Amino acid sequence: MNFRSFKLYFHFTKYQRTGIFLLFIIIIGLQLFYLFSDFNVSEQTNPEKEKWLSLQSEIDNEKAVKKNTKPTIFLFNPNFISDYKGYKLGMTVQEIDRLMAFRKQNKFVNSAEEFQKVTGISDSLLNKISPLFKFPNWVQHKTEFKSNKPDFVKKEFPKKEKLPVLDINQATQEDLMKIYGIGEGLSSRILKQKEILGCFVSMEQMKDIWGLSPEVVSELNSHFKAIIPPTLKKINVNDASLKELAQFSYFRYGLAKQIVTYRSMNGNFENIEDLAKIKDFPVEKAKIISLYLEF
Length: 295
Fold this sequence. Notes:
Elements: H1 3-7, H2 14-36, H3 47-68, H4 83-89, H5 93-104, H6 112-119, H7 123-129, H8 137-140, E1 166-167, H9 173-177, H10 184-197, H11 214-223, E2 224-225, E3 235-236, H12 242-246, H13 253-266, H14 272-275, H15 286-290, E4 293-294
């Protein structure tokens, strides 16, 4: 073997030796880092997950209890056995049909013996299912029930207080609160609306008050009527200013402005029909509005 040629393989330059030395340093450093480092990843705790996991044990316990619990057996009236129920009890199709035919005659079995007589089931099956039968109380305690009907005591209700028909414009809050469905809030709302208008000229105006149901309005019409007081100050449509017209509850500023414009261009209004020709005039309330105006 020629050692000289073999030696050539281990002949390195200065830079190569430095590189090999640094490589060994890196390898050793990585080995030490791997040896002393802890690579165990700590699990992040999720409160929601822990909550459900804690409940899982309770759910498992509940399932175990239900699994070990015997099913509850409910008693039943054998007169109302269905085809499926009879099959589950062990009855044959013929036995079920006999019971169905008996029931179609509007007849009832009132004991286990009658049930066997009608259906023809065996004694062994009767002994098995008869403890599950439940007949009405009147069948089991016939002697405890009287054949005659009990005497009913006629109950007298207090007579409804008959209220006199009053003028809605003279009604107080106490008078309004006597109407069924009207409390302190609605009665105050009615009186406030009367104050804004000056008075009510028609009971139809009750429909415009927010919160009054049709039933309550009907009750108000039964106990009140609208009497226009002679002191009502009417609005002269032909002389009233824009401000006076705009303050009227049934007119808005825009409508009041149209009235003044129409009046200045076409002359005075003769009646409510002339006034109703203006655009956006509430024609459906023309009759009520006319009672507040003069021409």
